[in-house]
């Protein structure tokens, strides 16, 4: 059963199962992760098979979840904690930023923090307030943390394996609107390093860069553009921190135009960092300014308005047209 | 026997009925030695209390008189004169070290110092109650506990001098790095204790925090987690009456030890200036943890004799009378009185200790002055365990920038 088609959520589940099975120090912790299997069923069946001392239903206290995970890591465990929704991570933000991120440095490397923080993130599922946010920049800005986001089932599986094996804390953003998207997962072949970007589609006229839920949208945009005779390259970053600028640079040196797409607000978003660095690296290659498509500088809107707020096919294509017009 | 302080008056209100102890919900306690915890009992056997005293467990009065305590005497019953002298020595040397550090800050050798003056008994009593395999999670003021754990005092000074953010190996002495964000470490202690329980070990964990930290959500969450998972952790709260300028009245409407009851585990208040009582109560609490009875809250009622840190000016918010009143309850003085009255010491002991004390001061002084500034590239060291491309890139940029000066210097 090396290769199998499965949903992205199921791929994470299988990956957690494999980690729990192969390393007795791996723990899964979070609210409702036990009997219920998590509100998105990502941990479905794990408590039944590994017991409630390894798959732990926690009190409803996010700081407590991350803070005790830090203590467990100090004792030699490798906790994988679930924050139920993106908007609920902030009670834990203090522990993540002031403790988890800094422990290795301040102990001069004596203490490792192999903690994975799983966060279902992003919009597009018609949810209520605080259930659709994309806070990845708030974590990428913090030295000591690694921030990744898979876009498909195979990456979801393997990046979770690699995140758990990492001796650094990894914030693992799960594109919740893609949980049910199916893809081929080969459980015997590692697709590549955790922090390396991947060219999803080759093109010559412009590069679209995205990660997590926006990769699929960019592929759709490339399809649509192809019908108009435009050849777009799509790059799946996979990792927000560290970020594979070499791969972006290589692509932009070829296509000379770059559009970055993410759900998070454009202002101080990861696209801003990409634009600055690529401008510096590729100044003489660029035919157009780096353009960004993302959320607005406004609270995430009520569900009936989220399609206006989120980058959609037309907004991406509009940015592509603007970049090509230079 | 004691002089009341304004800060001490608040908890009295609701302490009256409980006499320094709250039981957990337990009728289900297992060990014989602690089955009585669920009931309330007089914390002191002495009738010398005045009505203005907060209720607390006390074995040595400020005058150095040993008072009986039916519940806790057993935990120090076998203590030898040598061990008592050891406690005295620990407190004297810790105070000497602390004074030296304060002086070093005044001389510009340290950027800051957080003095433990007045809290020696709470720290030495509790610290000496720990076993080698126990794990300690300190705040940033536990210099006495560090001493008990065998952490070289000069190691504590690096962060206050600004050469590192901790720097010692927490696993060498099972003494975690100092934590500056108030209360965060109580959750780490709880998680660590959950791990101890998973491992099937009989080690215990002790988390230090203060009266100010008791208001933090993390402390409440650590109480919840430790209770729910029955984690082998002791929460040792040094109520030193002041959180910088805010008295305990600004943190709580009930005596802090009573908070434990609402979480389902016992809390006890101990005279934090009585090293023997702190030793006994902490031993009891650690034993509960070891034997699977879960968390305990110990409130050590003490006083921060000095400023919050060397940057603080306590004359802006508290009067001398209060400090003087607590001076009469000095932890070192009271043990000395007891030792002398019991003929456990002679002049030679004190003279020898004085010499040892001065030698420690000198050693600390010299070590700090000799402490080199870290290498510039230390900025980029250990940010990640497995490396990070951006850190590598910025380190190279920094190196190139530094190297650009070499040419200039070479001309």
From TrEMBL, chain A:
<dbReference type="InterPro" id="IPR029061">
    <property type="entry name" value="THDP-binding"/>
</dbReference>
<keyword id="KW-0786">Thiamine pyrophosphate</keyword>
<protein>
    <submittedName>
        <fullName>Alpha-ketoacid dehydrogenase subunit beta</fullName>
        <ecNumber>1.2.4.-</ecNumber>
    </submittedName>
</protein>
<dbReference type="GO" id="GO:0016491">
    <property type="term" value="F:oxidoreductase activity"/>
</dbReference>
<keyword id="KW-0560">Oxidoreductase</keyword>
<dbReference type="Pfam" id="PF02780">
    <property type="entry name" value="Transketolase_C"/>
</dbReference>
<dbReference type="InterPro" id="IPR009014">
    <property type="entry name" value="Transketo_C/PFOR_II"/>
</dbReference>
<dbReference type="GO" id="GO:0000287">
    <property type="term" value="F:magnesium ion binding"/>
</dbReference>
<dbReference type="InterPro" id="IPR005475">
    <property type="entry name" value="Transketolase-like_Pyr-bd"/>
</dbReference>
<dbReference type="Pfam" id="PF02779">
    <property type="entry name" value="Transket_pyr"/>
</dbReference>
<dbReference type="InterPro" id="IPR033248">
    <property type="entry name" value="Transketolase_C"/>
</dbReference>
<feature type="domain" description="Transketolase-like pyrimidine-binding">
    <location>
        <begin position="6"/>
        <end position="181"/>
    </location>
</feature>
